[in-house]
Amino acid sequence: MLNLETTREPHVFGEKVEFYGTKSPEIYLENDIARDIVNKGWSVRTDFLPESTLSQLALETLQFKLNGSMTPIENPSLNELSKKRFIQCIRKSDLTKAQSEYFERLAVLQDAINESLDLGLKTFDCHLMFYPPGASYAKHLDCYGSEGRRSLTCILYLNDNWKRTDGGELRLYTDEDSYIDVMPQKGTLVVFLSAFFWHEVLPTSRERMCIPGWFGTLQASF
Fold first, then answer.
1. Measured in Å, how far apart are the chain's first and last C-alpha atoms?
2. 10-residue block means of pLDDT along the chain (222 residues)?
3. Are the CB atoms for 13 and 44 separated by under 8 Å?
4. How far, rounded to the nearest angstrom, does the alpha carbon of residue 192 sit from its chain's CA centroid?
5. pTM of the predicted structure, to 2 decimals
6. What residue spans of 10-129 are helical by DSSP H?
7. pLDDT score at 28
8. Cβ contacts of 71 within 8 Å, gap of 6 or more
9. What is the pLDDT at residue 52?
10. pLDDT score recorded for residue 146
11. How many angstroms separate the CA atoms of 65 and 216, rounded?
12. pLDDT of residue 81
């Protein structure tokens, strides 16, 4: 049974990379995340990918935005053009080298979580996402009438030198009375059970990039 107990005090993640203490060796990181999911249903980890891979993913996202190929997504709570988010789907048949490296790490994570929690994860879908200054994302659940498609959410952040004053934190509601705020610092990976945890993105004062994705159970993916 999942233990979803958390602290009652809000907490901000991302100000220091050592907030989890001694950093786990890379080969153990996926197992650490799986253990978090078993124990509390969510996990926040830093330095999930090498700096070179993260920088290339960030560059690719920015290039898609600059060349106009990203699709604008309206925030239902905001009407101004500047408040739109933009996405670019990542297709498994056309992965870049950096995207392939990310998918390889996710395949290891998928296996670790399936072994620990027996979720039967088989698929993974994701896209690049760009938030212009002023954008936000209202409180929501990721599992919305698409049973089997979104079982576990993964969000990888791609932003250098993020500060508290930049806003744009992911607010993850760990229960009805508590939440944590995660700064979208490059290399931070947030993982949580899609049907359990409400979350939102607070208004950002600078450009914000990430790769949201979802493990599902419909068919083989990796």
1. 27
2. 35 36 56 95 96 98 94 66 79 94 96 91 95 93 73 97 97 93 98 95 97 84 44
3. yes
4. 9
5. 0.84
6. 26-40, 51-66, 97-117
7. 74
8. 86, 87, 88
9. 97
10. 53
11. 28
12. 44
Give Cα 136 to chain centroid, integer Å.
Answer: 15
What is the distance between the alpha carbons of residues 27 and 151, in angstroms, rounded to a whole number? 24
- Which pair of tokens denotes residue 41? 């249903």
Which residues are bridge partners to 167 per DSSP?
204
Q: Which class does domain 20-216 fall in?
A: mainly beta
Q: Which of 198, 139, 180, 164 is nearest to 12 (CA)?
A: 180
HSE-CB for 18 with a 13 A CA cutoff = 2
What would the two tokens of residue 168 be?
């744009």
For the chain, the residue count is: 222
Amino acid (1-letter code) at residue 34: A
Q: Residue 209: enclosing H or E segment and its boundaries? A: strand 208-216
Residue 192, token pair as written in the block: 């949580």
Contact status, residue 60 vs residue 111, Cβ threshold 8 Å:
no
